[in-house]
Predict the structure.
Amino acid sequence: MTLGTRLTLWQVSLLVLLLALFAVVSYRTLDSGLRAELDRALRERADHAALAVQTVPNLSIAGISPGLSGEFASPGIYVQVLDEAGRIVARSPNLGADTLPIHNERVAEVLAGRSFYDNEAIGGQDARLYHRPITRDNRVVGAIEVGASLVNVQTTLDRLQAIFAVSILAALLMAMLGSVILTRLGLRPLTRLADHAARVGQARDLAARISYSGPADEAGRLTVTFNEMLSRLEAAFKAQQNFLAEAAHELRTPLATLLGNADLLARYGDDPDRRSTALAAIRVEGRRTTRLLSDLLLSVQADTGWRLELRPTLVTEILRSVAENSQLHANGTTVTLVDPLPFIILGDADRLKQVFFNLVDNALKHTPTGGAIRLQTSLADQWAVVTVSDTGEGIPADALPHIFDRFFRVPGKSRGSGLGLAIARWIVEQHGGHIDVKSEMGVGSTFSVWLPVERSTP
């Protein structure tokens, strides 16, 4: 069932409920009003007749009643007078040969001084009766019964019922037709949105957008949201394509080197010098490939929302390990840890070590032999600041805003995967910190890592 059909059914159902409630309330109100009006007319007619009898003194009720019965009768209202023995002494002419029903127990109640209403069947029709005692000198001397047919009341109610039935049916038909039209008009932007989404899915054209010139209602906001979602999907898809292309490009070189050296081993495996050279190259490229795959995996994990587990960590030990291990592969460049301050942060020791290894490795790649790389620590309010500075070639000013982007490499520089700095930034941000860089061409670069301090050690 479509949304438009459901909306139409809901609207029509609500209208049915409201109309039915209105019809029931109106019917009950009119019914009670008509019956109350009839009861009032019957009571007034009985009161007038009783008053006339009561004001004629010293004359038997049997002598007065025959004239009164005709005087106080009117079309549709029947009058019947009883004496104190319960015998009929007069009745209105419109009764003809009929009489109003007489029940001994009811006559006894009236002669006992009680007035009340009752319903009876007269001549095959429902009638409303009113019973009233006639008193004279504080003594009950007879009774008056006044009745009226309920046919007119029932006819009026039946006519109203028919009017309600026809009106409700016509209103429902008109409401259903109008609801279908209005629902279709209201859902037209959603229909266009669904059709456009289907076309995007079939054509895989994430660059397409939906044009909307209507008011800023729900449909307008949904269209804007959908276009923004397409923009994010397009950016994510392009990033994925670039990621896969760059990953394939980065893996191709070390794999080609590994295969080439494997071929050398197969061809010149008996030559100790060539075998040693090939194995050394395989080990280097193997480590490079392992590091690249690790960086790629971490980059994917970062995109999927993976979070690090942080524990109290002494940064000094991490920096000392990074400086000592980096010096082993420095090739004539000095790597020095200068007067480290002992402070503890909430961190992931392995990932923090990866950050500083990446920074030092990046510095080694762009610092000539004989240069110097310094690791220093300082405290600024509640921040621990670790700087990695070098005396290398520096970074061009136009490249500085992009060096933390994935797979970005400074033009003219082919070394590196372009993932190290991007991963370093992500790890630092996972620790609640940030990383920045200052550089001057021909002088060197300084990377600063800011981490929130858990506490300092004495």
The CA atoms of residues 358 and 420 lie 6 Å apart. The longest helix spans residues 151-203. Residues 3-155 form a domain with the Beta-Lactamase fold (CATH 3.30.450.20). The chain has a mean pLDDT of 81.
